[in-house]
Design goal:
The complex is a heterodimer. By secondary structure, chain A is mainly alpha-helical. Helices cover 73% and strands 0% of the residues of chain A. Chain B has one domain. The chains are: A mainly alpha, B mainly alpha. The interface between A and B is large, with 43 and 44 residues.
Chain lengths: 106, 504
């Protein structure tokens, strides 16, 4: 029998956050719908939040946990601005995909 | 941290030291609140209020400058912000950009029949973000400043609701900017994990002490790398520059000028402060990375600019190559063993101030010219024949372009000479050579615009009349360019004692 414990340590969460961040990055790069790209950016930010919390736990330091609140506020502000821009484009055209946004080329 | 905190005690705040931020915030709130409650103001007043606010912030920054000269650099708000000459000079550059751009925007929006207070309020909030960035002594404060600046810029880029290019530019900027912010933040998280703090000064002391807990250098280096990638997107270093030409072309022209000046100065100065204050002990690791980024940025920025046909895209690539020059200064700062390592910081400070004035002036002229053209675009054709129709405007543009190319007797020469000299002083000859060659290649781009202005016949014969506010803005930019070009000691004397960044 191989004995190993299944008690999660901080490293588990760090790996998970790295994987989530990777999924987010991949999503921004391959998806063509701005809304989905936008969700992937939010996923990246939340992956970072997970990192901050688990590192704060590991370092036994409260600062990492307070940082998360700042990041959440910033993410919320980004939602407001991002959706505002997307809605403005939606009103002018019927659809928004990254492939439609081709007016600027040179 | 204590287990029990009986009562929250906030940090002591020296209100006068943060007064430029308060003034800018007050101006932004005034414009938004009063502007939305009262009927449309008379023409030009929104821009005037914004310009006056920025002017007040500049005056306060000059008072602070004298304070710092007499009593030395210090940290504010419990160590979150730094007050030193480096930050103040960058703040003054940012506020000057707001001042000039507000004047130009006022005329631009009057021409589009859509003058509104929101644009100016966004300039002011962007400036707040920029000043927080250049003064930040904490990576999270830096992140908040970065987001304040970026969110304002996304909206400004998309602010022209009549033109679809503007919205496209806003969306592209938003997606890539958010992407970059996430990278930067992940870098901050890993650095925090490796050092246990986000204060720049504390990171440095934690890295220099050998008795702390075993450090994880992989974590730290990955963190630093991710931060460099995040900054690379923000200041459009090659290979992270793909968004820049599209966004610069699509945004309303005065906004492009603001992005290229204030936005870039803030991000570059913050980048320099982070690497010089927090990671000098790892200079051997980031030095080569900065070297490669700098060389790539210089070469690609100058070479690709040559084949563009739209003036805004040309200037976008030219701003990329300017960022490369400033990175040369950062590379200089990585040579810790050389006695001349401080030259890098001085050269960067001089460069960003002169660059800000220069680029605002250039884009002001482009604004005036593009608005007169039939489709509102700034193609090279729109510049044809200005030399005959409006020789004064063409002369101003010529001076600004010569300065961008780095011709002697203009401020651009002072800036580029300073950076290249600093690189040579620390023995970074390869980079100095690359920078000089690229300056020559880039000069070709500016010559193309000049040829178009002076040697081509105009498509329309009507004389391009320049509105009053734009005239003032262009005149100020040209005056700075020429005065500093002829008497560089005015600025160099101020910046000679720059090597000391605030550390306690």
């Amino acid at each position: 029998m191989i004995a190993f414990s299944l008690v999660p340590t901080a490293s588990w969460y760090l790996v998970l956050s790295a994987v989530l961040f990777g999924i987010g990055t991949f999503g921004v790069l391959v998806r063509r719908n701005p809304l989905v790209m936008f969700m992937c950016i939010e996923l990246m930010l939340n992956a970072v939040n997970l990192s901050f919390v688990s590192l704060a736990r590991k370092l036994d330091d409260i600062n990492g946990q307070t940082i998360v609140f700042f990041v959440m506020v910033v993410a919320a502000a980004e939602v407001v601005v991002g959706l505002g821009i997307i809605v403005a484009i939606m009103r002018n055209r019927n659809s928004v995909t990254a492939d439609d946004l081709v007016e600027l080329k040179g | 941290m204590n287990d029990q905190i009986p009562e929250f005690v906030g940090p002591a705040i020296d209100w006068f030291s943060v007064s430029p931020l308060i003034v800018l915030l007050g101006g932004a709130l005034l414009l938004l609140l009063v502007g939305s409650l009262t009927p449309q103001w008379r023409r030009g007043w929104y821009g005037l209020v914004s310009a006056l606010t920025a002017g007040a912030a500049i005056v306060l920054s000059i008072f602070l400058w004298r304070d710092v000269s007499s009593s030395g650099a210090k940290l504010l708000v419990g160590g979150a912000l730094a007050l030193d000459h480096f930050a103040l000079l960058a703040s003054i550059a940012i506020c000057s950009a707001v001042l000039l751009v507000s004047l130009v925007t006022s005329d631009y929006l009057a021409g589009e029949n859509s003058d509104m207070p929101e644009i100016y309020a966004l300039y002011l909030t962007a400036a707040i973000g920029g000043i927080v960035m250049v003064a930040a002594n904490d990576l999270i404060v830096l992140f908040l400043g970065l987001e304040t600046l970026s969110l304002s810029l996304y909206l400004l880029a998309a602010s022209n609701r009549k033109r679809t290019e503007s919205q496209e530019a806003g969306l592209k900027y938003f997606i890539l900017g958010g992407f970059a912010s996430a990278f930067f933040l992940y870098g901050v998280a890993l650095t925090y994990g490796a050092t246990g703090t986000t204060r720049l000064v504390d990171i440095n002391s934690s890295l220099n002490s050998y008795i702390t807990v075993p450090r994880n250098d992989t974590l730290l280096l990955v963190g630093v790398g991710l931060m460099l990638v995040g900054f690379g997107f923000k200041v459009s270093l090659v290979p992270f520059q793909a968004w820049t030409p599209d966004v610069y072309q699509g945004s309303p022209t005065p906004v492009t000028g603001f992005m290229a000046s204030a936005g870039k100065v803030a991000a570059l100065v913050a980048l320099v402060r982070v690497f010089v204050t927090a990671f000098p002990s790892r200079a051997d690791d980031w030095g080569p990375a900065v070297f490669i980024l700098s060389a790539l940025t210089l070469v690609i920025g100058s070479v690709v600019a040559v084949v563009q046909t739209d003036v805004k895209r040309m200037l976008a690539y030219s701003s990329i190559s300017h960022a490369g020059f400033i990175l040369v200064g950062l590379e200089v700062s990585s040579h810790r063993s050389s006695p001349n390592v401080g030259d890098g910081l001085t050269a960067i400070a001089v460069y960003v101030v002169l660059y800000a004035a220069l680029v605002v002036g250039t884009f002001s002229v482009v604004t005036v010219v593009a608005q007169k053209s039939s489709d509102g675009a700034a193609s090279l054709d729109a510049f044809k024949g200005i030399g005959k129709n409006n020789p004064v405007l063409a002369l101003a543009m010529t001076v600004l372009l010569l300065a961008q190319a780095g011709v002697p007797l203009t401020s651009g020469f002072v800036a580029k000479f300073g950076v290249i000299q600093a690189a040579i002083n620390v023995g970074s000859y390869e980079l100095a050579v690359v920078a000089m060659v690229c300056a020559v290649i880039a000069a070709f781009v500016y010559l193309r615009i000049m040829v178009s202005m002076w040697l081509s016949d105009s498509t329309s014969s009507e004389s391009a009349k320049v509105p009053l506010f734009s005239t003032i803005a262009i005149a100020i930019a040209v005056a700075v360019t020429l005065v500093i070009g002829v008497l560089p000691s005015l600025l160099l004397d101020l910046t000679s004692n720059f090597t000391q960044l605030a550390s306690k």
